[in-house]
Amino acid sequence: MSEIKFESIGIIRTSYKTLENMPIQPMGAKGEKAIIELNSKFVDGLKDLEEFSHVTLIYHLHKVKDYKLHVIPFMDTEEHGVFATRSPRRPNAIGISTVRLIRVNDNILHIEDADVLDGTPLLDIKPFFIQFDNRENTKSGWLDRKWDDKHKTLKSDERFKTSIE
What we know:
Elements: E1 10-13, E2 33-38, E3 54-60, E4 70-71, E5 80-81, E6 94-105, E7 108-112, E8 120-127, H1 130-133, H2 141-146, H3 158-161
Antiparallel strand pairs: 1-2, 1-8, 2-7, 3-6, 3-8, 4-5, 6-7
């Protein structure tokens, strides 16, 4: 693999200081307030962002130290290929979350529903466009067979912690 370098544009600050009981998806963090401290040199890029209700965050899973090509995801008890899951144990430790944008104050973005460890380096922010980001007639593979309402509040467990320092 060739090397690709990214510059962090800010830091995500949440109440999740450890992985214990951390939500594994934004719906499990419903109503949890967090902030993004954007590096000041990028503040001009926030123009008009406050008009959006949601943003998609792209971030570096900075505590993940290894990857596995087969994992048992949080919402199942059977092994799947890592690319058929949202496991953090990926060849490139990149995470995404769509969160509610509450307000923007200078370089601070106030958000809700962030399922991210405190201190996570932010790589990018993209506005959520309902016209492009929602899809009709979709399927979710193995998750369609496993899904029930208990998954809305699922928290991290040992599967996540084994790859983190």
